[in-house]
Specification:
Layout: E1 4-8, H1 13-24, E2 28-33, H2 39-48, E3 53-57, H3 63-77, E4 82-85, H4 102-127, E5 139-143, H5 156-176, E6 183-188, H6 200-208, H7 220-231, E7 242-245
Parallel strand pairs: 1-2, 1-4, 2-3, 4-5, 5-6, 6-7
Length: about 250
Amino acid sequence: MRPVALVTGARRGIGRATCAALAAKGYDILGCDVAQDGADETAAAVAELGGRFGFRLCDVADLDSVATMVEWAWAEWGGVEALVNNAGVGAMQRGDILDVTPQSWDRCLDINARGAFFASQHVARRMIADGAPRRGHRALVFISSANAFLASPDRAEYTASKTAVSMLARCFALRLAEDGIPVYDIRPGVIRTDMTAAVAARYSQRIAEGLSPIRRWGEAEDVANAIAALVSGAIPFSTGDAFHVDGGLHIPRL
């Protein structure tokens, strides 16, 4: 039987690309998202690569919804070997840090950090229980951001949430190492997705001017391929590490 990966935020962008990349590595895929739009395209991408795909509506900021999603994964699919915490949102509006609203702060922290924490907690409890499936490599993945360490005061709430996500990866790595479950932090840089569409012209100019040593946009597939390599066991003597998928953006320069 093929191992199963649960991917949050699976209907588009990095989530859809991750579902396809993991299917190519031999995983069946469970996807969840807050809306149905785009899920059929993700299902088709997985099927084309020989994988089964199940989809469920789930808002990771709603803890009851998260618990129900994990119950479904075990009841209908016999559990999961991998969880990819991909669901995320940006700031409601970029601008002066002095104008950040409680609503935008809570939204970023609730979805990006709180949702990833409790989804991981629910899945990890079941992964280490007696009788948990062992159909392939097991792993947890948190997708943080280059903003886990690069400050952007025009979206401070987003950077705070992604810094939290990066720390969560390390905390879960320490807890789950004894159970043989590695945990990884993926830090995308400037990636071409719906989230960056509104500022595409600005970033295209900055990339051309040398924002990152590799002078091109990152694509969703760049991130997905890194996730799939780690989840499938390509770097087995590693846990809690942050993997930069950013064209070298993270390299300090003088």
